[in-house]
Specification:
- There is one protein chain.
- The protein has 14 helices and nine strands.
- It is of the alpha/beta class.
- The protein has two domains: 76 residues, 5' to 3' exonuclease, C-terminal subdomain (DNA polymerase, domain 1), CATH 1.10.150; 178 residues, Rossmann fold.
- The protein has a nine-stranded mixed beta sheet, sandwiched between helices.
- The radius of gyration is 19 Å and the shape is globular.
Amino acid sequence: MCTNNATLAQWVALSLIPHLGSQTIARLLDRFGSLDAVLSASAAELKTVPGIGPKLAVAIRAADVSAVQAALASWLAEGIAVLQRDQPGYPIALRGLPDAPVVLFQRGALAPEDARAIAIVGTRRPSLQARQTAHALTAHFAARGWTVVSGLAAGIDTLAHKAALACGGRTLAVLGSGARVVYPPANAPLVARVLARGALLSESHPDANPSASALVARNRIISGLSRAVIVVEAGPDSGSLHAARFARAQGRLVCAVRCAALGNVQLLAEGAFGIGAEGDGREELEALLNE
């Protein structure tokens, strides 16, 4: 974690401005040379940077670094670590991605073995076969030392976290809400267990409620942390398909369980690595990932 709280507060203040992504922040730094210069630039100067329009320029000018610095103390006191992309502690797997979050909020603890991670995701309303498959796949990889990454959503995500923990494995939950906000609320007991053997990660303000845009965006973190993304069962509009698309763009391996779900059929037609509902193919997948 960054040891200079004043600088960290500046990073956080910028990262929490809606629609100001990491690549645009990088362009701001290229143009102005420092965080101080970015935050003191005029609206007219800010608008000379590609991607900065009038609304973003006003938002940057209004960034309240002092308020963020005051909040940092309460976050840290609650065990919410603030990881800046260029500082130690930030996940190495994410650091090289062009759209990696500038700042991540973390509850729990990351571990060196989390570099060997696999994502298991799917529908919020799984069939009985998908539930059984999710448990078996997660147990297989967790028992072999893989950290299981998912999104804490109802359905397959929840099953994956629980199965990893049941096997004594590690699991990371990437949130579409703030680190203080458990969503869905029914997963509060699961969160307590995740914190004992893994971490919660979020790029949103710690008090942020879930939003559609944040739930989609967190999928690039799920895939970015992982060497492969396995979609257990997905309809044609399933959020888990976003994780597969991000994985493909990031050069991660995309995998799908062979089943009748339309999202899986689509992924397999696009060249996803196929895994049988009974687990055939998982040893071959693991061999690929260990190469």
